Amino acid sequence: MNEGSTTNLTTDVEIKGTIKFDKVMNIEGKFEGELVTNDGELIVGKTGAIKANVKVKNATIEGRLDGNIVAAEKVVLKQKAQLLGDLQARTLVIEEGVVFVGKCNVNPDGAKIEKQSFSKPKKEEKEIEV
After folding, report:
1. Which of 21, 58, 65, 100 has its CA 20 to 30 A from that of 86?
2. Looking at the whole model, is its pTM more than 0.70?
3. 3-class SS at 47?
4. What are the backbone dihedrals phi and psi of residue 35, each rounded to the nearest 5 degrees, phi first?
5. Quick check: 26 and 45 in contact, CB under 8 A?
6. Number of domains in the chain
7. pLDDT > 90: percent of the chain
């Protein structure tokens, strides 16, 4: 990762609003609002706390994210990450110790999913002579 292409929000920063970015956004502070990028990557550090809807190419979460995340490619939930919201991505990596409360849609090939119908199990009846 090239340091010159990373925007850092340090632990003493609190921002509300919409942030649009193109490269790498590293958040260690607090953010509330909306994070949007087509080609960028979001990193929520261990001290990062975000309350937002997020649309990114890739995301790595180590801190807390309250909100929905849509990633065009990959989401990585690190060991002590907390995600409270829905997630949609092509690839998902979840380490042990993650808290994730929400719906998850991971579809690596973008394939259409056909609903499968399951038939009810047949009851078997046997006569037992006593």
Report:
1. 21
2. yes
3. coil
4. -115, 125
5. yes
6. 1
7. 72
